């Protein structure tokens, strides 16, 4: 009996914390939505270590990050950031490493420009600080508003084509 009361209390507590009634939803629906989102994003768990490890890229063997630790960090990062997003913002947004930026880091900074992984990660850290500063000063919004819609779409297409190119290149 106490287990049922505990479960019922937990469900009520979660429903109250996330204000599910306001969004006209319930816990089972949200759990299904979360599982669906995970299934859609699960490819990142394996693709991120493949890209960062230069798996199957001739001439770059041994220059990439190790598969196992990269897979673990990808999972840990996605899990912690998604939980933090849900708990702090009450929005159902899943967060994970992006497939565009990891390809740029691996193939442009490390493979093409010859940076070491610590140097490439320093570039990413500094970029993160700059983006944070732009967000806090609201300058980021002004920049994004100044970019024409056609160019925004072209950038998205370009990133997609870059990732496709890497996929074709590494598949032989």
Task: Provide keyphrases for this structure.
172 residues, mainly alpha, 0% strand, disordered N terminus
Secondary structure elements and pairings:
Elements: H1 2-17, H2 27-41, H3 43-52, H4 67-89, H5 99-112, H6 117-136, H7 139-146, H8 149-170
What does this structure look like?
By secondary structure, this protein is an all-alpha fold. The protein has one domain (24-170). Helix content is 74%, strand content 0%. The protein contains 8 helices and no strands. Residues 1-5 have low confidence and may be disordered.
Compact description:
This protein has one domain. The protein is built from 8 helices and no strands.
**Overall pLDDT confidence:** 89
How many domains in all?
A: 1
Please describe the biggest sheet, giving its number of strands, its sense, and whether it closes into a barrel.
none
Class from secondary-structure proportions: mainly alpha
For the secondary structure, the number of strands is: 0
